[in-house]
Automatic annotation (TrEMBL):
Residues 523-656 form the Fumarate reductase/succinate dehydrogenase flavoprotein-like C-terminal domain. One of its GO terms (biological process) is anaerobic respiration. It is found in: Cell membrane. This is succinate dehydrogenase. Keywords: Cell membrane, Electron transport, FAD, Flavoprotein, Membrane, Oxidoreductase, Transport. Its cofactor is FAD. Gene3D superfamilies: FAD/NAD(P)-binding domain, Fumarate reductase/succinate dehydrogenase flavoprotein-like, C-terminal domain, Succinate dehydrogenase/fumarate reductase flavoprotein, catalytic domain.
Length: 657
């Protein structure tokens, strides 16, 4: 039976009670305890900085040349917090409720409530670090809305919120590096977990510059390595993003939870051809002011500007009047797919819809006219003033779109289409963020805990920083308090030797194959199987086919992949080979999990389980649980179920109408 370690008592008091009763480590003992942090995005950087500041000896690892390169830097639109600055009815409870509902009642209440509780602290912490959040004219922090909410609680820094938050966490991390509390290992990739007497006691890492394998001891290991969206090959993730750290943890006994819960983001630049290696996100914040529409006539080839207002279908506003363009991402994505599949798509591929700012530009222009007390203003001047306001709010996003597509979004609507983005599944963790392996923790997108079957926009940054700054310092301390008598274990211990040999054998195996196909060849093939049969819509037949196709593809990969170069050198193809090998195993588990979950919820849409009007149809009686999968050997998994109990948010049919 999975023990989620949720404290007793009311939701409002669980976290305070936990902090008041957890074990502590005194400052002198912290100096002799070592913690390994794998990944230095928002979760990893904030955790390493916080633990270093507390006095622990921290080793932080990232495969990039700097923690500043972590994919957190690509987050655009904002970060949620229940500050209620707008006085529009927001509260900790409402943020908690919106998150549980947005996740389609497949998240753990206790973890989500804690997230909402500490959300306000995150903003205070980041402002103190100098994060340049947008401000109103009078100097107060500004807020905007995101999908799935009816209040304004999203703090932002233009369209580069992730970058600014990461620079804040990076600054805190580098301060601890300078003080000697954190040792930073750039260009290092974790390739295995080392377990001694059932506890995580270190990692094997590869120096990506010279290829050497290194052994590192830690009293505890924190996996903060992000999500696994690149299993689809084309996604909004950085091309280096991968599942390897979490998957090695899984193969060492950590359960993997809800792998089929992947999020398709509704506002991305559409695929333009087979040459692409990644997709580009257009921030959800654009849906604040942009209106999404398609022509009312099928296969309409006219330009957007030639289609009169009465011939446009603002389908989100039509189908979901209460939330309109700000419905959650899973709802918006499926609605776009439905319109395109029905023949109403736009652009040359017909796999796109319009995101139109014309009305917002005119509205903002009129507001400016009023503010400046101007009279007899021409339509052209109103539009010019409106464009200036939109440029101030979304300028870098508009510039990015123009550079990629060659089109001016101020003059013509953007074309967007859903794409793979965030992954809600990840390592199973308890309330303390501990996996099923003692001493092994998982933070941020690498774990499953806070988002259920669908992530609301602006909550990923919130979770990563909450876990790193405000949760793990207490929970890992509770574990390490019992480890103060454990001396640092020498890395010539047999467990380290065996783990390094296993990694080396795998590397040698790659070079021994001497096949004819590149790593990317197999990655693209896997991605097509996943997108076609485990993407925006899944069905039983397709998932069963996908499982068999992935098994065959994996066998072909291990017999015919070509990895050039040598092991003991800088070799990006070797790095990719290891990551794709893990994706080939994870992909099968994702399809298995999707096949097992015979319901539709959030981002997991089973075609056999939908309402009459095409909405997701949950089955709370049979599937109100976390699916935690235990690795039992290649292609072999045992399902463990953590029942989900809802005391405050009683599950209802999700409606945004």
């Amino acid at each position: 039976m999975l023990d989620s370690k949720i404290p007793k008592g009311s939701l409002n008091s669980k976290w305070e009670d936990y902090k008041g009763h957890c074990k502590l480590v005194n400052p002198a003992n912290k100096r002799s305890l070592e913690v390994i942090v794998v990944g230095t995005g928002l979760a990893g950087a904030s955790a390493a900085a916080s633990l270093g500041e507390l006095g622990y000896k921290v080793k932080a690892f990232c495969f990039q040349d700097s923690p500043r390169r972590a994919h957190s830097i690509a987050a655009q639109g904002g970060i949620n917090a229940a500050k209620n600055y707008q006085n529009d009815g927001d509260s900790v409870f409402r943020l908690f409720y919106d998150t549980v509902k947005g996740g389609d009642y497949r998240a753990r209440e206790a973890n989500v409530h804690r997230l909402a509780e500490v959300s306000g602290n995150i903003i205070d912490q980041c402002v103190a670090q100098g994060v340049p959040f947008a401000r109103e004219y009078g100097g107060l922090l500004s807020n905007r809305s995101f999908g799935g909410t009816q209040v304004q609680r999203t703090f932002y820094a233009a369209g580069q919120t992730g970058q600014q938050l990461l620079l804040g966490a990076y600054s805190a991390l580098e301060r601890q590096v300078a003080l000697g509390n954190v040792k930073m290992y750039n260009r290092h990739e974790m390739l295995d977990i080392v377990k001694i007497d059932g506890k995580a006691r270190g990692i094997i890492a590869r120096n990506l510059i010279n290829g050497e394998l290194e052994r590192h001891f830690g009293h505890a290991v924190l996996i903060c390595s992000g999500g696994y969206g690149n299993v689809f090959f084309l996604s909004t993730n950085a091309m280096g993003s991968n599942v390897t750290a979490a998957w090695k943890a899984t193969k060492n006994g950590a359960y993997f939870a809800n792998p089929c819960f992947t999020q398709i983001h509704p506002t991305c630049i559409p695929v333009s051809g087979d040459h692409q290696s990644k997709l580009t996100l257009m921030s959800e914040s654009l849906r604040n002011d942009g209106r999404i529409w398609v022509p009312k006539k099928q296969n309409d080839t006219r330009k957007a500007g030639d289609i009169p207002e009465e011939e446009r279908d603002y389908y989100l506003e039509r189908r979901y009047p209460a939330f309109g363009n700000l419905v959650p991402r899973d709802v918006a994505s499926r609605a776009a797919k439905e319109r395109c599949d029905a023949g109403y798509g736009v652009g040359t591929s017909k796999q796109a819809v319009f995101l139109d700012f014309a009305a917002a530009i005119e509205r903002y222009g009129n507001i400016e006219v009023g503010k400046r007390q101007m009279s007899n203003v021409s339509k052209e001047e109103i539009i010019k003033l409106g464009k200036e306001v939109v440029a101030e709010k979304y300028g870098n996003l508009f510039d990015m779109y123009a550079k990629i597509t060659g089109e001016n979004p101020y003059e013509t609507p953007m074309r967007i289409y859903p794409a793979v983005h965030y992954t809600m599944g990840g390592l199973w963790v308890d309330y303390e963020l501990g996996t099923t392996v003692p001493g092994l923790y998982s933070l941020g997108e690498a774990n499953f805990s806070d988002h259920g079957a669908n992530r609301l926009g602006a909550s990923a940054l919130m979770q990563g920083l909450a876990d790193g700054y405000f949760v793990i310092p207490y929970t890992v301390g509770n574990y390490l308090a019992d480890e103060i008598r454990t001396k640092a274990i020498p890395t010539d211990h047999p467990a380290f030797v065996e783990a390094e040999k296993k990694v080396r054998d795998t590397i040698n195996k790659f070079f021994a194959i001497k096949g004819t196909k590149s790593v990317d060849f197999y990655h693209k093939k896997l991605g097509k199987i996943m997108w076609d049969k485990c993407g925006m819509a899944r069905n039983e037949q397709g998932l069963k086919e996908a499982i068999q196709e992935i098994k065959a593809l994996r066998a072909e990969f291990w017999s015919n992949v070509r990895v050039p170069g040598e092991a003991n050198e800088f070799n990006p193809e070797l790095e990719k080979a290891g990551r794709v090998a893990d994706f080939l195993e994870l992909g099968e588990l994702m399809c298995l999990d999707a096949l097992n979950r015979r319901e539709s919820c959030g981002g997991h849409f089973r075609e056999e389980s939908q309402t009459e009007d095409g909405e997701a149809k949950r089955d709370d009686e049979n599937f109100s649980y976390v699916a935690a999968w235990e690795y039992k050997g290649e292609g072999q998994y045992e399902l463990h179920k953590e029942p989900l109990v809802f005391e405050e948010c009683k599950p209802t049919q999700r409606s945004y109408k």
